[in-house]
Amino acid sequence: MTEDTSPASTSATSPSHGTPNPDPFNAEREALRHRLLKAHVQAAAARSGFRDPADSQLADLSEVRLGADDQLEGADAAFAALRQSKPYLFHPEDAPARMGTSHAGPAPQPGSIEARHVRHMSREEYGRAREQFLRTHGR
């Protein structure tokens, strides 16, 4: 005789006694809470100034929990301790926190750029504009 091992039959009863399990969705609920905790930790890492948010895995996250209202508790302390021991993982504290790893620089000021089409420039004007562009953008 084969035993029914479908998820519906195994999660609804206790394997040892055959009595109904009080919460058949407990495993799914715990998996969702774990995913929520991981998402909150990643968001907190991005806000805390990591140069690379993946480095947040180096922090001691054993005390990090989700509170009753699903808010993250303990991550700030864990990241502060990591900032003390490995400051090179973080942007300087006086620098604004950035999302991502690229930085485009400051926005141009209104009126600071005169748009001219290259077809209306002489060779000398084009050469000067090209050199200025390359100096400005570091290429």
Summarize this, please?
This protein is mainly alpha-helical and 139 residues long.
**Mean pLDDT, rounded to whole units?**
76
Largest sheet: 2 strands, antiparallel
Question: Radius of gyration in whole Å, from Cα?
Answer: 28 Å
| Proportion of residues in helical segments | 25-40%
Shape: elongated
Order of helices and strands: HHEEHH
β-strand percent reads under 5%
Order of strands across the main sheet: 1-2
- In DSSP terms, counting alpha (H) and pi (I) runs of 4 or more, how many helices? 4
**SS-based structural class?**
mainly alpha
| Distance, first to last CA | 75 Å
Number of strands: 2
* Low-confidence runs: 1-14
List descriptors:
disordered N terminus, 39% helix, mainly alpha, elongated, two-stranded antiparallel ribbon, 139 residues
Draw up the topology in text:
Layout: H1 7-12, H2 26-47, E1 65-66, E2 72-73, H3 75-85, H4 123-137
Antiparallel strand pairs: 1-2
Describe the structure.
By secondary structure, the protein is mainly α. The chain has a domain at 22-93. 39% of the residues lie in helices and 3% in strands. It is built from 4 helices and 2 strands, in the order ααββαα. The chain has helices at residues 7-12, 26-47, 75-85, 123-137, and strands spanning 65-66, 72-73. It has a two-stranded antiparallel sheet with strand order 1-2. It is elongated and about 90 Å long. The chain starts with 6 loop residues before the first helix and ends with a helix.
